[in-house]
Amino acid sequence: MSKYQFTESDIYLPGTDIPRNKLGIDNPELLHEIEAALLQQAYIHFIAELSPTVHFDEEYFKSLHRDTYESLYEWGGHYRSVDMSKGGSLFCRAAYLEQESRRIFRELARERYLQPHAGGTAEAFAERLAHFQSELIALHPFYELNGRITRLFFDLIAIHNGYEPIDYSEALAAGPSGLNAYIEASIQCVQRAESGKLQQIILRGLRKSEAV
Ligand SMILES: Nc1ncnc2c1ncn2[C@@H]1O[C@H](COP(=O)(O)OP(=O)(O)OP(=O)(O)O)[C@@H](O)[C@H]1O
Ligand SMILES: [Mg+2]
Prior knowledge:
Blueprint: H1 8-11, H2 28-49, H3 58-69, E1 85-86, E2 89-90, H4 97-110, H5 115-118, H6 122-139, H7 146-160, H8 169-172, H9 181-192, H10 196-205
Antiparallel strand pairs: 1-2
Bound molecules: adenosine-5'-triphosphate and magnesium ion.
């Protein structure tokens, strides 16, 4: 069973948006620092583990979340069992998560994890990567850390296809409206099933790897 039966109150400390964690930390800044350190370690680990035969399937995607964060969170690697929204965006209903996830990963496998686009233009590669990233943004399968794990997943796909990890730094920097460009693009993905803005962000952050 891939879904975990957690309710909101199992996930967050009462009256806060601070996730309950195995270290008993209730200081959000400290928690963010630990999350950042774990993510940094995960990049090193998963990049080192990449091999030409890796399958970027649902199990792999979940393993990124689990292996990165299970030392901190009980629900590491588990899909949510509650409906979730952010701003005015409702993500995939919990009841349809499993079937939607299966569809997305089936389509990604059918496109051989973007390998056929690797030799083409960066524009074409960015278009397909943005399409699939947009699908996972709308899925929002985990309770927390969806953005970071989704970007890690596609960074690994980018590396697999001869690119560097994607540079999202401009898009993730806070804009004047308080919403950064990545969130603006995500709103388009979730509310309109359009990945055009996301494609522009990805294209700007894509660079061919110089390694031979
Ligand atoms: N208003 C919104 N509409 C649609 N999607 C949104 C909205 N706000 C956030 N998102 C999406 O949800 C993700 C954040 O999810 P979550 O908080 O689970 O992960 P995170 O790792 O903390 O993300 P991030 O590092 O991107 O802030 C964002 O990266 C974005 O894709
Ligand atoms: Mg978050």
